[in-house]
Design goal:
four-stranded mixed sheet; 16 strands; 343 residues; alpha/beta; Dihydrodipicolinate Reductase, domain 2; 4 domains
């Protein structure tokens, strides 16, 4: 039984522990869940992750309820590979997918999870980021995963719906230690139908392209769309296409924020990343850690943030062999051997 202090890591620490527990068959108890947050304990999106993972591996769970600040999770040895979940709020669908994904990647059965909640919300990657950035990176390592987005869900109503499908495949270690030259940036802009008369999605894409052109970066508008949603909102993704990798930078619209401000936010974060020698963007650096620790390989990340440090410590607790090599330019090369549970 592993004991995990969940005070510093937020919901991500719980989700990572759930993934590792299911893969390795290791029970754990987590205490002080989200203890450093203003409102600690399990929120609907965290509880949904626990419930989905419990169903997935036939786990025995103690104290899993809204507001709980500790729980015990004992994974079983069976698998349920067709799952459904309703977060009930605008809680992130993509973070729920990320909890299941490491298990599905290393198992020998196809997985399917249909979830409702928020698809494009703060503090989490958007659906388009997963489809256009994360999954192409994983595909290069042999991962066969796809998301079918049925409906977009913005904050506060949520109501989005998407399906994750993962098919067994032959995996190879990560080799993301260099990125090569920039080939250009693709723009993906989306807004609610109610914002079509103000051309919100078009303005986001157009202003982002203008900002990038002014910086000497070639940009192409790949998609502009208006979709039916329960709450008005918008999102914009910049996909930077490099010779050996891709990176993503998304931004969300909200009341009082102009389309131009959304575009400038995404462009600013792209330019900050482009000034580094990292092979993956800051958000991907954290998202790839669990899969990297399972299948092995190397990834060059922009910086060793507190969030990354916390998750690396947790990986160590579950038997992962991960090394960190800092570079003079401020980036860090993370190298891992395949986990014994996957060999």
């Amino acid at each position: 039984m592993r004991t995990v202090d969940g005070a510093d890591g937020g919901g991500q620490l719980l989700r990572t522990a759930l993934s590792l527990s299911a893969v390795t068959g290791t029970p754990f108890r987590i205490e002080n869940i989200r203890g450093e947050r203003p409102n600690p304990g399990l929120k609907p999106q965290h509880l949904t992750a626990v419930e989905v993972m419990a169903e997935l591996c036939g786990a025995d769970v103690e104290s899993a309820e809204l507001g709980a600040e500790s729980l015990t999770f004992r994974p079983g040895d069976k698998r349920h590979t067709s799952l459904r979940a309703d977060i009930g709020t605008a809680g992130s669908v993509t973070l729920l997918f990320d909890t299941v994904l490491p298990v599905a990647v290393v198992d020998d059965e196809p997985y399917r999870l249909t979830a409702t909640g928020g698809t494009d919300v703060n503090w989490s990657p958007t659906i388009e980021y997963h489809r256009s950035v994360k999954f192409p990176l994983l595909a290069a390592q042999g991962v066969d995963a796809a998301i079918d987005p049925a409906r977009t869900g913005f904050y506060p109503a949520g109501g989005g719906k998407a399906t994750l499908q993962v098919t067994p495949a032959s995996l190879s270690p990560f080799g993301l230690d260099r990125r090569g030259d920039l080939d250009g940036v693709g723009l993906y802009s989306k807004a609610s139908e109610s914002l079509a008369d103000r051309n919100v999605a078009d303005r986001q894409a157009a202003h982002a392209r203008e900002e990038l052109d002014a910086a000497g970066v070639s940009a192409t508008v790949q998609r502009v769309e208006y979709v039916e949603t329960a709450s008005p909102g918008s999102s914009l993704l910049l996909r930077a296409n490099y010779e050996h990798t891709v990176a993503g930078f998304d931004a969300l619209g909200e009341r009082g924020r102009t389309s131009e401000a959304v575009a400038e936010d995404a462009v600013r974060r792209f330019r900050a990343f482009h000034d580094t020698a990292a092979a993956v963007d800051p958000h991907m650096a954290d998202q790839l850690l669990v899969v990297l620790a399972l299948v092995g390989g190397r990834v060059r990340i922009p910086a060793l943030t507190d969030h990354v440090r916390t998750n690396l410590a947790l990986l160590d607790r579950f038997g992962s062999d991960v090394d960190i090599d800092p570079a003079a330019d401020g980036t860090h090369l993370i190298e891992a051997n395949a986990h014994p549970a996957v060999d």
